[in-house]
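Hi there,

I know you've been waiting on this one. I reran it after we fixed the sequence typo, so this is the corrected version. Both the input and the resulting structure follow.
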Amino acid sequence: MGGERPVRHDWVYLGDHWAEALRSPLIPDVLVHVTAWRAQGRPFAVARQDLPDREDDLRLGLTLPGRRHLSLHVALSAVERHLPPPTVQEVRATAPAAWGPALDDVIALGSALDLTVGVFGSLAWQHRSGVPFVRPLSDVDLLFSPARWSDVERLLFGLEAVSRRHSVVRLDGEVLMPDGGAVSWRELALEPERIWVTGPRGASPRTLRELRALFPSES
């Protein structure tokens, strides 16, 4: 595999010899599901790494249509190729028609802020695999990577406005921090004194001031 290392929420396709690259054994039932999924040409989602993991370790997830979640621990060499999270524009055609106006507003918000809006969760699984995952009460999990704190503030204001306009679907998801951590945009909008941050390895609480300090200063 060439290029950058896959990160959380990326998608990977495993090569022919993936089973030889397992770092942790799979129970027979899980092995059957993983083998069949890969044989059908479908990808796996990159998960958060564990603290003891080495740089060439990779944690992957497989969510089955029945909402069963499976985990894999492989060597990085198992990956044949990888893709970033799909964008809202990419998944728009596969989403329920009733979600269209809300997604269009999210796309417009991203364009106004010059942000690429990614998608993870059930809608991304449906898009990447071609298997039905979305249910009537499914959320839309969005992914944002603002470059400035002022963009974070404008983003949160815009997302709250879109959510008020469209009650047919719940907009959820994360804002990515410059250091690779991620926070729930809904929690961040509440401006709590401390907020839970999911990092590339592990998770921990941080103060709002610490999160602001991760972004470049603005004059």
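Quick highlight: The chain has seven helices and eleven strands.

Best,
R. S.
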